[in-house]
Design a protein that fits this description.
By secondary structure, this protein is mainly alpha-helical. The chain has one domain. About 55% of the residues lie in helices and about 5% in strands. The protein has three helices and two strands. It has a two-stranded antiparallel ribbon. The protein is elongated, with a radius of gyration of 18 Å. The two termini are about 30 Å apart.
């Protein structure tokens, strides 16, 4: 229990959902570039990014030149370098891996959302019993 001491669970769950949303965009971008020659897939280190978001450290601010750009100060990205290319265009996107990552990320988002809903239901129930 000491690992979670002083952590606001609502803040943790909301941060997890936001990061899962950002991770979804990254994975979708990898899938969209499956046929782009020379494209290297990008991955989010979800656990360390969530830890940094909760602790409020490790953020850097980058200039955005267009409003559509992702806010890179919220997460850490790294290029997937262990993926072997099997095509002649040097594209390293493994579509099966990206689809699996998408399913895992969707499950993570749904889990955080469900826990958050149950947490608010418990608070609502407690407040209703105070009357």
């Amino acid at each position: 229990m000491a690992a979670f001491a002083g952590v606001n669970t609502t803040q943790l769950l909301v941060a997890g959902m936001r990061l899962a949303q950002d991770n979804h965009r990254i994975i979708a971008n990898n899938i969209a570039n499956v046929d782009t020659p020379g494209y290297n897939p990008v991955e989010m280190d979800f656990q360390s990014t969530l830890r940094n978001a909760v602790e409020g450290r490790g953020r850097i601010s980058l200039r955005k030149t267009r409003p559509q750009h992702l806010d890179a100060s919220r997460f850490r990205l790294h290029h997937a370098s262990l993926v072997q290319t099997s095509k002649n265009d040097y594209n390293k996107v493994d579509i099966e891996k990206e689809i699996a990552n998408l399913a895992k990320n969707r499950s993570r988002y749904n889990t955080y959302g469900s826990i958050l809903v149950k947490q608010f239901a418990m608070v609502k129930s407690m407040l209703a019993n105070l009357r």
